[in-house]
Amino acid sequence: MNFYEHTIIARQDASPSEIKQLTDKYSKIVEKNDGEIVKTENWGLLNLSYLIKKNRKGSYIHFKIKGNGNVISELEKNESIDKKLLRYLTVKVKKFDLETNYFVKKDDKEKKESAKN
Predict the structure, then answer these.
(1) Most buried among 6, 52, 100, 103, using CB within 10 Å?
(2) Domain boundary assignment for the chain
């Protein structure tokens, strides 16, 4: 069983319901191919470094997946024909970092830290 971190970037004009549909669609593909979604993170609308298909921003969705290579090949095959997506990237990792949330707003971090103390 391999560990993968998989990120997709949806078009900037995708509504929250469309983002939810994309998340569900790709989660089902992973589960159908004997994979497991360990964690899903919605990073929100972020600026792109350069224009991609005339878009300056994109909605990022990040998956942490347990599975074999067939899961990823099937996932990427479906994403390559999806018009709602701008880009996708899969990285094989040795283990998951489930603690750190890199795209949490600073206000939220301060609230969580003050709640711990």
Answers:
(1) 6
(2) 2-116
